[in-house]
Design brief:
With 357 residues, this protein is α/β, with parallel strands linked by helices. It contains 14 helices and nine strands. Strands 4, 5, 6, 7, 8 and 9 form a six-stranded mixed β-sheet that branches. The chain has a three-stranded parallel β-sheet with strand order 2-1-3. Helix 2 links the parallel strand 1 and strand 2. It starts with a helix and ends with a helix.
Length: 357
Amino acid sequence: MKRLQSLIIGIVAIICVLLLGVKQLEHATGMAGAKVVNIYNWGDYIDPDLIAKFEKETGYKVNYETFDSNEAMFTKIQQGGTAYDITIPSEYMIQKMMKENLLVKLDHRKIKGLENIHDDFLDLSFDPGNQYSIPYFWGTLGIVYNDKFIKEGAITSWNDLWNKDYRDTLMVIDGAREVMGIGLQSFGYSLNSKDDKQLHQAFEHLKGLTPNIKAIVADEIKMYMANEESSLAITFSGEAADMMYENEHLHYVIPEEGSNLWFDNIVIPKTAKNIDGAYAFINFMLEPQNAAQNAEYIGYSTPNEKAKELLPKEVSGDTQFYPTDDMLENMEVYEDLGKDYLGIYNDLFLELKMYRR
């Protein structure tokens, strides 16, 4: 009888240890249940004070992780190893995630503040009716230059970057769609071209740019440009705003041929465990005061019209960051290229990086 009791006690003890281990694992991975909101976002893409404010106002604990590319984010979500409640992909990736059934269809009855978003950023082609995504930030790809080394007004076009005077000065964003897009747009072609001849022509043209390329990097561009270690860069508008804040000699230009007009939207992945927490975060970020604070901290353009009204006039009135309708006509949004052509873009970009060595 004593042996039986000891056996039962031993089994109970093992179960307790296992349950404790599961709880600790859940805590360690940020999936401890309904009181945790797991957010998967780009690096340095939200004011940390807003996370603290969200936690204080809602009682939720935020587990915050970052990614450095849409493709890396997609792969991790698709694998399903971590139950993220919120992530913030770009428009073409939202399209792809919808096709792969990786997103939760939104219940608009649970969303408060969508009326604050300007109509220009709602019901777009990549997500008609905003059935799966809520606008977060938008912006452009362009050129930053330093007027101490390059005459003010000398840069107006993508093709200006090929000037031999800029040898070994150009910092280039590390992205296949971005770099191939520059080559395509320099000929007036679509950023979403699936024409093999156009892609080959763009690639050959980009090979001629390599003598001017100092480095192909990502976040490091801000440091290089702010510290005047380079005089010319290709980067996103919000990154440019950060650099210009640090160095008054920097200017941001949207090339006259046009540029990529991108949108990053909030979505709820299919693997989400805390749906209520996800909606709470969406509603929090739709509040004009929070959206304005985030836009001032990050530097990207807000789609929240009520938030834009709270921004300083020198920010909201700057047409390089809030382009006019005429400027927007020359811009193009990335589309999902499909697996085959995305592979071609990536392969050409990799070959270009190897060529410059």
